[in-house]
Amino acid sequence: MQRRTTLLFALAVLSFSAAGQISREKIEWLDVWIPDTNERGLPRVLLVGDSITRGYGKQVETGLQGKAYVARLTTSKSLGDPLLLDQVGLVLAEHKFDIIHFNNGMHGDGYSEEAYAAALPAMLARLRRDAPGARIVLATTTDVRERNNLDKVLPKTGRMVRRNELVFAFAKRENLPVNDLFGLIRDHPEYHNADGVHFNEKGSAALAAQVVSAISQLLP
């Protein structure tokens, strides 16, 4: 398995580098939060995602208090960027995680949906290699609405829908559960902040509640 994961990563790097398709944000960022590092009494959960995950992460930590230690890795890197594998590997080297909730898809506009889907197997292989035995949950990506006009869904949402379809198909092949966050917020423009991308207190609470529920079903 380790040899196969290394090969998948090498092929991804060569493929994207040769095609000149590595796409980065204007500002790249990485935010890692690992609490209760010296505790051993509860299962350990890792939330992997972007700024949406960062928005609901603290509420998930609170919702699972006394049941699990909740860490998070949030980043501007998208599936399709081979360096996302390194970032995930960095955190997985810190602790043994029992559950990993993976929510990635908002970033990476420079990657086609085909490239996004092509990166899923290597990511899953990395998670399985560095967190053997961990239960893995894939989550869908939320929608994008017009700034200060939240009733209008932007065309980018169509890309999110396609990426989510690919996630569902991949999860079915790999027998993985999917937490449908897109389905939760799809008909609730009032959950969004004015920027149309992120979520207000009510929206973050709704997302966090569903993430807590999905994780709770997998806790030992």
Instruction: State the CATH architecture.
Output: 3-Layer(aba) Sandwich
- CATH fold descriptor: Rossmann fold
Largest sheet: 6 strands, mixed
| Tally of contiguous helical segments | 7
Radius of gyration: 17 Å
What characteristic shape results from the CA principal axes?
A: globular
Mean pLDDT: 92
Task: Name the CATH superfamily assignment.
Answer: SGNH hydrolase
Summarize this structure briefly.
The chain is α/β, with parallel strands linked by helices and 220 residues long. The chain has one domain (2-216): Rossmann fold (3-Layer(aba) Sandwich). Helix content is 45%, strand content 16%.
Question: Describe it for me?
Answer:
This protein has 220 residues and is α/β, with parallel strands linked by helices. It has a single domain (2-216), classed as SGNH hydrolase (Rossmann fold), CATH 3.40.50. It contains seven helices and eight strands, in the order αββαβαβαβββαβαα. Helix 4 (113-130) links the parallel strand 4 (99-102) and strand 5 (135-139). Helix 2 (51-63) crosses helix 7 (201-216), helix 3 runs parallel beside helix 4 and helix 4 (113-130) packs across helix 5. The protein starts with a helix and ends with a helix. Residues 5-20 have low confidence and may be disordered.
Structural descriptors:
220 residues, alpha/beta, Rossmann fold, six-stranded mixed sheet, two-stranded antiparallel ribbon, 8 strands, globular
